[in-house]
Write a sequence for this structure.
């Protein structure tokens, strides 16, 4: 059945049963998939009318509003000047455009006076992260252990200072794990995408970065999560030699040094899919000097990911163990996609017959037959890095992992 026929049929069903929330949620998801955010938003409004505060709908609504605000150039360029600092020295040289790629995605509203809007208090714990025993062990050793036992750490001459960089293929739980670490520490969680703080104006990226760290300090203890750290190194290579990226990296180094040396309860966690693109200065001791590899979800992780994505959907006869066993090689994002496709198959069938048919193993198997692991290209680059650019042994852990997967 054509994609849009599915949507049309679902809308017809929704017309007949407007009170069925699960149906409306599916419609909203389909609308988002088709980038029809305004329509999605309208349905979110109706759904919240029926069930105010529904977390899933609120999440979908955020996706629609974010996409809509990102789509409007007028809003994108309306930069609100961060307040609270004396950055008079930082020139605002309009017209000095460093690199067109920077113009993309330059929201400035993260620099808000309303901390509550940006800082979260995650309920997630490491126990919610399925499997991934090695990642948990390393987190315990390098970060959680020393923080729980500061005296012992001191006696052994170690500390939790410095930054920790999570790296690995896309969609495999880096962000999820970082949030669980914050939950584990009982700390606030402040996630930032590096690309979002980069600004085309001289001095503005540095100022954004400074305000991010200030906000983290105000909310200590706080896990400041810097996602896509490679954006700093990566973009640099595409920029004019005279551009200001160097100063942005320097600003980050300064902020990290003061955040981690003045024991102010800010823990910097970074994440990247491409650690080999991360500026080398950021990998020196005291900065992101420890790297933890987050690989493809293992059996237990796949089971918990599948469970998570099917938990609020009508299912019958789903054998999670069997599915987890047969999905080795798929990322968390791939598994989420499989669950959505299986749901659509069961729904299409329900529409044909007019009766709700729960999602069963055949739907998931059909969805699995359609999917290819999305991380192939990543593993190709990773193999090259291990083979040609692992002179200092930075990627030994990755090398062992790749060897084990051959
Ligand atoms: N070990 C796990 N246990 C339970 N759920 C997981 C696990 N790993 C990943 N997930 C699920 O997979 C989703 C994708 O993970 P996440 O967004 O953290 O990946 P990522 O590595 O940050 O991806 P990207 O590189 O695209 O930013 C999460 O929202 C979570 O639901
Ligand atoms: Mg992520």
């Amino acid at each position: 059945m054509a994609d849009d026929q599915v949507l049309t049929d679902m809308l017809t069903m929704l017309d007949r049963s407007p009170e069925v929330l699960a149906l409306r949620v599916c419609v909203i998801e389909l609308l988002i998939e088709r980038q029809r955010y305004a329509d999605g938003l309208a349905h979110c409004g109706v759904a919240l009318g029926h069930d105010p505060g529904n977390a899933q709908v609120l999440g979908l609504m955020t996706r629609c509003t974010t996409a809509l605000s990102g789509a409007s150039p007028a809003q994108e360029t309306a930069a609100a000047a961060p307040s609270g600092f004396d950055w008079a020295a930082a020139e605002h040289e309009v017209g000095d455009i460093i690199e067109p790629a920077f113009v993309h995605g330059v929201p400035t509203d993260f620099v808000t006076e309303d901390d509550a809007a940006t800082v979260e208090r995650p309920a997630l714990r490491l126990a919610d992260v399925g499997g991934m025993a090695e990642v948990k062990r390393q987190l315990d050793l390098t970060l959680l252990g020393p923080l729980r036992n500061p005296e012992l750490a001191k006696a052994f001459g170690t500390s939790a200072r410095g930054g920790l960089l999570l790296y690995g293929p896309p969609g495999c739980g880096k962000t999820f794990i970082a949030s669980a670490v914050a939950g584990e520490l009982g700390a606030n969680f402040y996630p930032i995408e590096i690309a979002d703080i980069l600004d085309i104006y001289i001095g503005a990226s540095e100022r954004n970065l400074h305000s991010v760290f200030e906000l983290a300090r105000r909310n200590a203890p706080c896990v400041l999560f810097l996602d896509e750290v490679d954006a700093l190194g990566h973009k640099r290579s595409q920029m004019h030699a005279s551009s200001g990226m160097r100063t942005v990296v320097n600003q980050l180094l300064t902020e990290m040094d003061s955040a981690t040396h003045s024991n102010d309860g800010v823990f910097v966690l970074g994440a990247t899919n491409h650690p080999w693109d991360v500026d080398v200065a950021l990998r020196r001791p005291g900065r992101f000097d420890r790297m933890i590899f987050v690989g493809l979800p293992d059996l237990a992780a796949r089971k918990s990911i599948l469970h998570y994505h099917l938990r609020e959907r009508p299912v019958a006869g789903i054998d999670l163990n069997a599915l987890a066993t047969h999905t080795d090689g798929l990322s968390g994002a791939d598994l989420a996609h499989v669950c959505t496709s299986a749901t659509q198959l069961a729904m299409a069938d329900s529409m044909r017959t007019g009766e709700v048919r729960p999602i069963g193993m055949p739907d998931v198997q059909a969805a699995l037959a359609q999917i290819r692991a999305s991380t192939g290209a990543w593993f190709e680059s990773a193999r090259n890095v291990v083979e040609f650019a692992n002179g200092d042994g930075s990627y030994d852990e990755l090398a062992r992992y790749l060897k084990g997967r051959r």
